[in-house]
Amino acid sequence: MRFLATEENVRITGRTLFVENTRYLGFSGSAVSFSFEGKKAQASIWSNANEWGEGSDVLRGRIAVYVDGGEEPERRITLDREEAVYTLYESEQEKKVTLTVVKYSEAAFGKCGIRYLEIDTDRLLPPPAHKARKLEIIGDSITCGYGVEAENELAPFHTATENPAKSYSLLTARALNAEASLISWSGNGIISGYVEETAEAPSDGCLMPKIYEYTDLSGSETLYGPDESKWEKWDFSRYVPDAILINLGTNDCSWCKDIQERKDHYKDQYAAFLKVIRGHNPQAQILCMLGTMDQRVLKEAEEAVRIFAESAKDEGVHFLALPPQNPEDGYGADWHPSPLTQRKTAELVTAEVRRIMVW
After folding, report:
1. What pLDDT, on the 0 to 100 scale, is given for residue 54?
2. What does the alpha-carbon distance between residue 156 and residue 242 come to, in Å, rounded to a whole number?
3. How confident is the model at residue 31 (pLDDT cuts 50, 70, 90)?
4. Predicted pLDDT at 4
5. Residues 314 and 305 sit within 8 Å (Cβ to Cβ)
6. Quick check: 239 and 134 in contact, CB under 8 A?
7. Average pLDDT for residues 252-268, to the nearest whole number?
8. pLDDT band at residue 53, thresholds of 50, 70 and 90?
9. Is the CB of residue 137 less than 8 Å from the CB of residue 169?
10. pLDDT band for position 49 (50/70/90)?
């Protein structure tokens, strides 16, 4: 039995595009979940594998398949062909199972479009219910789980070592038994993405305040080209988070450095972004955080929260200063947080969300 990844058949996690009967998983941690009774499940998936050249898998899409909500995936699959059918699950015995297909590679790399799902029987069950608690997590590479599975800090970027399930983001969601929608993009920021030390201008072509307004900016651009009028704007009524976590500023540091004028611009634009987020989410508690990889705009981030809270008379916005990563805990690729650092961060964030939400 073949079926489409529609909301009638599957549970959708995160912001996803559904275009011409294909469900595109873009952001890290976006997922589809379905339940069935049978022995085998497959998926026909489109990806942009050929874009990176034959034999090059550095930027190819990666997905993981979880069975019955397990803590570890049963399968991890590299999307190495433009169009292919991949086996998600096989068993010698027919049984009722719930499968969750999660995007591990981040939004900018490794596209993943589910053309259809197929089971070996006609016993498709109702999709699993959404969780009662809902988080939205806005961030950069740390939130994506960039390089968390790399051997050490000298390892370069590779989608094979990205794993949002080992990032503080999805670790926090699991600890809180909450659903999580990640809007995260490596190298991104509020006034600048990551730039080299000698850069003479910020990298401001596509920043998080713009990304936030779209369902999947990268996916829309892939499908519709550069005409922004065709890109799908996000309908904020589709997912109403109880709490919004924001971890932005690490890449802004590379541009701001210790130049106060730039730091003040970051602070002002952060406060402005908070106003936008609050406008779309009037009831959510907002927790801003920063500090794991770079603390040069830590004070300005905290001041942005204070300025917004005071000007808007908003008691639902909070700030959490994160400790810098400890060299003894190791590093992931390109000096990113190791699994241990991510777990320690998740413990701090989980405790703070519990306090704020009284969960």
Report:
1. 64
2. 36
3. very high
4. 98
5. no
6. yes
7. 98
8. low
9. yes
10. confident
Give the tokens for residue 286: 């907002």
Q: Which amino acid is at 193?
A: G
Sign of the dihedral through C-alpha 327, 335, 112, 179 = positive
Mean pLDDT value across residues 235-261: 98
Question: Which residue is associated with the tokens 């589809």?
Answer: 32
The residue assigned the tokens 């085998």 is 40
Pairing of strands 243-247, 285-290: parallel
> In this predicted structure, what is the pLDDT of residue 55?
59
| Secondary structure (H, E, C), the chain | CEECCCCCCCEEECCEEEECCEEEECCCCCEEEEEEEEEEEEEEEECCHHHHCCCCCCCCEEEEEEECCCCCCCEEEEECCCEEEEEEEEEEEEEEEEEEEEECCCCCCCCEEEEEEEECCCCEECCCCCCCEEEEEEECHHHHCCCCCCCCCCCCCCHHHCCHHHCHHHHHHHHCCEEEEEEECCCCCCCCECCCCCCCCCECCCCHHHHCCECCHHHHHHHHCCCHHHCCECCCCCCCCCEEEEECCHHHHHHHCCCHHHHHHHHHHHHHHHHHHHHHCCCCEEEEEECCCCCCCHHHHHHHHHHHHHHHCCCCEEEEECCCCCHHHCECHHHCECHHHHHHHHHHHHHHHHHHHCC
pLDDT at 52: 72
Q: How confident is the model at residue 318 (pLDDT cuts 50, 70, 90)?
A: very high
Residues shown for the chain:
359
d(CA 64, CA 77): 6
pLDDT digits (tens, 9 = 90+) for 145-197: 999 999 999 999 999 999 999 999 999 999 999 999 999 999 999 999 999 99
β-strands 317-321, 243-247 pairing: unpaired
Q: 251: Cβ–Cβ under 8 A, 6 or more apart, which residues?
A: 140, 187, 188, 189, 192, 193, 194
